[in-house]
Known about the structure:
- The chain has 880 residues and is α/β, with parallel strands linked by helices.
- Helices cover 59% and strands 7% of the residues.
- A five-stranded antiparallel sheet has the order 4-3-2-1-8. A five-stranded parallel sheet has the order 10-11-12-9-13, sandwiched between helices. The protein has a three-stranded antiparallel sheet with strand order 5-7-6.
- Strand 1 (45-48) and strand 2 (51-54) form a beta hairpin.
- The model is unreliable at 1-42 and 148-155 (pLDDT under 50).
Amino acid sequence: MQVLKKLLKIYKSSPVPESFVDLKGAGQRDPDTAAQWNRVGVSSLYELGPFRLDPGAGVLTRAGDPTPLGSRGVAVLTALVERRNEYVPKSRIIDAAWPDLVVDEGNLAVQISAIRRVLAQAPGGERWVETLARRGYRFVGPVLELAETPLQRSGDRSNLPEALTSFVGREGELAEIKQLLPGTRLLTLVGVGGIGKTRLALQVAAEVVDAYRDGVWFVDLAPLTDAKLVPSAVAQGLHIRDPAGKWFVDTLCNQIRARQLLLLLDNCEHLLDACISFADAVLGSTTQTTIIATSREPLQVAGEQIYAVQTLSLPDPAASAESIGRSEAVRLFVDRAQRQLRGFSLTPDRASVIAELCTHLDGIPLALELAAARIRSLSVGQINARIGDRFRLLTGGSRSALPRQQTLRATFDWSFDLLTEEERIVMRRLSVFPSSFTLEAASFVSSDEAIDENAVIDLLSQLVGRSLIIADTSNAGARYRLLETTRAYGLEKLADAGETNAVKSRHAQYFRDQVDRAYDDWLRMPDVQWLAVYSLERDNIRAALDWALGVDGDPAIGVAVAGASGALWAQLSLQSEGRQRLEAAVASLGAQTPVAEQARLWLWLGLLRRYGAPVEAVAALEQAIDLYREMGDELGLGHALARLGAALTQLSRFDESAVALEEALPLLERAGQPKALGFYYSELGRLKKLTGELTAARTYLDKAFTLLRDSGSESAALGVLGNFADMTWTLGDVDAALAAFREAVALMRKSPQTRKFLLGVSLTNLAGVHTERGELDQALAAAREGLPLLQEASYAWGTLDHLALRTALAGKVTNAARLAGYADSAHAARQATRQANEARARNRLQVLLREKLSADELERLLADGAKISEEEACRVALEG
């Protein structure tokens, strides 16, 4: 940067800006000077002792650093040096330095003095310019004229290829790279194949041409197979040639030593050693040459600045079309699709499908462009449907591109072929991980007799360096992942090697062992710590269950993982998914299944069934209780009994609930687990609330809140606040209930540990309070946010009485009657009795329906509603 500032001062141009963003035009010679040199035709370089005179650049340097001699002084010195050892008349010097201007001889005298002051830095240099009184001057110092080169003769500032397509997105990356350039001599853009490294580098180079006196020069190394040809390729890119016709690195460095230029070395990965040697030599022997390299791995040269090129920003498929359209990946896909199919656009009905496609393709520009090339023959939906076979689908690249850039498979083949055999083995084995994973998981799953766990650690690091594995070191412990497209390629290679089942088995074994303590940890650890350990492994647990309970799997592993992961599905509000997975595992129970694993599986299946299928929940919990009794596990038994009491309360079997809860208390007190006791008092308080013992209910809920809060179960504690609000509503204080639910909802939204299910309950109850107050718009807004959160737990049915009443009050009586029919049917199917607030809403609704509808019509609509699905009922409730 200091060199650049000196140059700009010499040229008397504007001050150096803070970043290259504002360098447009900086560093150029003024038009008069440029015209002067064009007319004089100076193109040679001259060595004057320790100085180098570059007439074309208008600069005199010493040891690579610009001297303070300005452009006029350089012009005067050049006129003398060209006719060295001869007296040059003042008039001729003035014509050369001030063309087309009338200049007093005093200006020339000033420049001669400036020249002598600079040359005096060399021994005797102040005497190199002699004066012939009233006639002129003569240069008598040492002069070595250097060979001229086509680079010196050329008026071009670059050889950058013309962009044939628009540059989309990456505004942030462009700004970052341009800010990095002034402070580094070697900037390497690294990333997986097809990520857009070359396109980004070319765009950066095009935008900073004016910042480099001798321009920017592009060298494509992709076609080369012989490492010895790297210097020749660079020379050709710079338009210079060696008189001897044979290029060596030192010869090339000598040619560019005095040049201030940016060199773009593209596709270095297959010639890495040669590129490392070349870059090291250039950086060591020049002072004004900057290199941008693109590679799938860093050069690891001293002073290198590594810049990892990321995928394009991805959209949320559930977002609005406007929001989706702001994604860089979507913008690129649409732009390239429009080149294939005129009139193609991002329409609201097409937006989510395009978003899904871009996400599946990881925002990799090459993959998106290849997908867009299919748009003439396939719809976006059809492309999406075939994306599982992406390597056969995405083959329509430009015929003018290199073969490895014409298909997605060829791009990945190129990277894979550059790996060592051990790196290939580890990469394909790591493809079994569906999302991120730890170093320990990678070591266990990828190792074998030939590659031990320590070797895997080194190989993983190498794959990260080669941009095939992404390392996330932002958290306390590093995690790794593959892009979906890289993973798909690796799975193909795993299948080709015949290792799929064996590696998936090791993956499932590892996560069986990892989640074995999840239930115990859940009881003793604060939620935030527990989630930090286990929530990140959700996709790995899914994959382990899919394999273990599949055709070629291991049912014993499946049962163990399913039961151990029960808390995860509940804590992440994935009740429906968890219930399905645990029910699949129950089908694999056998005589050989350890009793502890059976008990744990039944316990969590009962918990996950509680709201969607309370009768089945009771059956599952009774199985767990029998098994825990057999084991003599007091904590497990006490917890199962407390949960059985909750399920029985849901069914209004209050006496049986009281018996189960009474037995649970001493067991849990002896176990000394505060969180389990907190859940116990929460369920006991709920029972007392529903049986009308409100003073006792408040006492037990207070205990529950304190225990859960102090044990770090923030989500459950917030759920207790929802119970307090519900109890206030039951007492008929609608205004206080409104305030209480609003407070509970606000706290739940603020807490990162909040379970979506509990937030959904509070929001739909808030909708019920608004309905009771006649605030129908506010009720609808709360319901639209809350009801979808309950659908995952299959509990939307429990709140539809309030929404049916709101629908009737809004004048849509027919829809209200159908909703009432669905709610009646849902309660009957689950043998559930309405709680006080829901019963009050249903009674009020019934009065309205009888006022507006005939008995026959009401009966018909109730029967019709009993036949619709929960999804249809929710859609009707949220229509407005």
